[in-house]
Design goal:
By secondary structure, the protein is an alpha/beta fold. The protein is built from 13 helices and eleven strands.
Amino acid sequence: MSAPAEFWNRRQFLGSLAAAGAAGCLAPAWANELADERPLKLGFDNFSIRAFDWKAPQLIDYAASLAVDTLLLSDLDVYESLEEDYLTRIREQAGRAGIELQAGTGSICPTSKSYNAAKWGPAEDHARLLIRTAKRLGTPVARCYLGSRRDREGDGGLARHIDEMVKVLKAVRSEAEDSGVKIAVENHAGDMQAWELVQLIEEAGKSFVGATIDPGNATWTLEDPLVNLELLGPYVVTTGIRDTAVWETESGAMCMWANMGQGVVDWTAYVKRFRELCPAAPFVLEIISYRWSHELTYLQPEFWSRYPGVRAPEFARFVALAKRGRPFETPDGRPAGDATPELERAQQKWDLEQSLKYCREVLGIGRKV
């Protein structure tokens, strides 16, 4: 199928960026940090234990009990107030517990099907609220995203949403830079492939925009997580890490998110390359296991209308990933029984704690004993 001229111009633009990256021209803000052999910081996103519906103080206490380094509060509803006095108390509580806080919210793209204008009003105002919240918490990290795979459908496809989100980001540039906050856009729920997120960051301005890298979401866009890391690594500010089981089907491949070590990702290779590309970024787990799956029906011709920019070598890496994968299996010891709110909470807690254990004991991640 043919692609519009705008698409090819963007592909040429991204090709030049890849060459620049290979030459070491895309050094992120933390590149001047002294490289050392300390373990990567380990943490989790509160979405991992969403069924508890805890607010920020309870989440900080739980993070302290797990001896993690970082807690990403990835939505604004975890706070009982967004006023400065309250957020200062949250910051102080985290400081006493030795927890690095990171702030976040959902979509800030006004044209995305995921954007909640009724709740947040204009997207620029939502982005400014996120920046103010991050500043009041004392964190330079403000995570957000564009949308989901649904935004690949319809006239203009994903490109028109990327353009609109770039406009929002440029509109809040001065507030972000004055606050010392970097907006960390996630590859989220099948919206952007890595090259598309790189394009967004570069067009908006990499001085104040970076990436929240999510290898689980990468699989929903036909990407091997290691390919995703190679492209996004120089831009990474924070993370949303989980494993994925990927296996072939009659129509293409199925993806099912899984606990760390239970999927198809080569985590030893991933962590080695992560340390080389973004060693100052924390390894933040966003565990969403055995609940949501997504089939990529790439053997059906109509599928490709949503993915006009897929590059053959990268797609081949994903196909190879699917070929060596297998259908998911629930791990031994996971709480089971009739579906109840209590069971859901027990499963989420077990999944997160097992995944933290894997990161510490197998991958050597985490700075606290």
